[in-house]
Each structure stands twice: as structure tokens, then as C-alpha cells.
Amino acid sequence: MLNIDNHTNFTINRQLIENIVKKHTSRDIDLIICYNSTIKEYNKSYRDKDRATDVLSFPIENDNIMIADIMPLGSIVISIDFVRKKAIELNHSEDNEFTLLFIHGLLHLLGYDHETDSGEMRRKEEELINELHLPKSLIVRTEES
After folding, report:
1. Longest Cα pair distance anywhere in the chain, in angstroms?
2. Which pLDDT belongs to residue 138?
3. Which has the closest alpha carbon to 17: 120, 114, 124, 100?
């Protein structure tokens, strides 16, 4: 189940996001949509980085196999300010940008890590964005910068 805590006026395509979740996990995910000021607080508190960012993922790790399937997968926090800025900058819709960031966050919850893997996350992200006909992935854009 997808639990959405939207602190903004942005309307998400809930059906699309829920379909993405259902395809990859049966575990609950908390999605928080906020502004830069809030995500900056999360980034400072949990990553010691005093700046806003586009997306954060907080996986819930549990080594107890007996209860792992009933535990939530974790939380994804997305800054709507970044969504809007990047959508304008890259000339695509806010829905597309939001979905790209959600996919990126979800893959982190599922254990992928583009900073330490050998391209597995990039390939999985590419697979999903191609399937959904989305613009370039977050990882690809970062690599091209």
C-alpha cells in the first residue's frame, strides 16, 4: 500500500505511482511530498547535508525474515520545488519529473545504490523509464552533467 502525505498543492497521478509500487513490492511505502524547506531539514538531520535535494529514500531494514514481508519498505521524500524546476528546465511535464524521482527513490528502497553498484540501478531505472515512456532518468542526467 502507498501512504501519501502531501504537504503541497501538487496533484500526483496516484494510479500510476501505485501501479509502479505493486509491480515491484507488496510492502507498504510512505511517500512524502514537500517543499525545499522541509526536504532540506531531512537532508540536514539524516545525511548531514545542509541543502535541499530532489529525492530522499529511507529504507526500513530488518534482518528478521519472519516479519520482513509485513514491515514497510520505507519512505520516499520528494521536493515539489525540484520537480517544478526540473520539469521547466528539461521541458517535460511535472508528472514525468515526479515519476522519475519516485522511481529513483523506490529503487533505493529496493536495495539499489548507484553510488556503489556496477550500473545495476542505472539499468533498472532505464528499463522502467523506457517501459513508461519517460524522459531521461535521474542517473543518466547526473552522469551527463
Report:
1. 46
2. 57
3. 100
Per the listing, cell 515512456 goes with 133
pLDDT > 90: percent of the chain: 63
Answer yes or no: is pLDDT of 93 > 90: yes
| 15-29 average pLDDT score | 94
φ/ψ (deg, to 5) at 30: -95, 130
Q: CA 59, 27, 25, 7: dihedral to nearest 10 degrees?
A: -70
The answer to whether the CB of 83 falls within 8 A of the CB of 10 is yes
Query: Within its chain, how far is the Cα of 36 from the centroid?
Result: 15
3-state secondary structure labels for all residues of the chain: CEEEEECCCCCCCHHHHHHHHHHHCCCCEEEEEECHHHHHHHHHHHHCCCCCCCEEEEECCCCCHHHHCCCCCEEEEEEHHHHHHHHHHHCCCHHHHHHHHHHHHHHHHCCCCCCCCCCHHHHHHHHHHHHHCCCCCHHHHHHHC
d(CA 74, CA 91): 31
Domains of the chain and CATH, by start:
2-144 (3.40.390.30)
